[in-house]
Design a protein that fits this description.
152 residues; alpha+beta; Cytochrome C Oxidase, Chain F; three-stranded mixed sheet; two-stranded antiparallel sheet; 5 strands; 11% helix; elongated
Length: 152
């Protein structure tokens, strides 16, 4: 007759990594400390404020300008430059395109050097862009690294 060793019949028990109950989201934010960006954003959202304006509430951003040298597209920025991503495969604002690669270029406050003063011409479309200073002092509370003195 076949004999089974007593150690082979024991069920393995987890001893090192025991399951522990998960904590609530409110308590999780307390782990970051009183001045963490996650906690500041959560407290602002509880008051109905979105400090980073992450949600457009399904309203497309108003496009200012026509893209000509006389009336360029106005790009708001807190810094001296901003990266622009063009999706030429997009059919309309909020409609996903065909998956074509994005076209990326920089818009500078002083201009690109080849266009009229203060203007930047897109090398892909030929349209003109102008950087407009956008001041948000309430954002400096949460993000003190992003400001007008930054070098891009």
């Amino acid at each position: 007759m076949l004999k089974i060793a007593p150690s082979a019949t024991k069920v393995a028990v987890r001893t090192f990594f025991r399951r522990s109950p998960s904590i609530a989201h409110e308590h999780h934010l307390d782990l970051y400390g009183p001045t963490s960006i996650q906690k500041i954003e959560a407290e602002a959202l509880k008051q109905g404020l979105d400090i980073f304006v992450q949600f457009d509430h399904q309203t497309p951003l108003a496009i200012m300008g026509e893209g000509t040298a006389e009336n360029p597209f106005l790009i708001p920025s807190r810094n001296q430059c901003r990266m622009i991503w063009l999706d030429k495969s997009g059919e309309a604002p909020g409609v996903q395109g065909l998956g074509a690669p994005f076209r990326v270029f920089w818009v500078w406050a002083e201009g690109d050097g080849n266009s009229p003063a203060g203007l930047n011409r897109c090398e892909y479309t030929g349209e003109y862009y102008k950087l407009v200073h956008w001041d948000m002092p309430e954002l400096d509370i949460a993000d003190n690294q992003s400001h007008g003195d930054a070098v891009c």
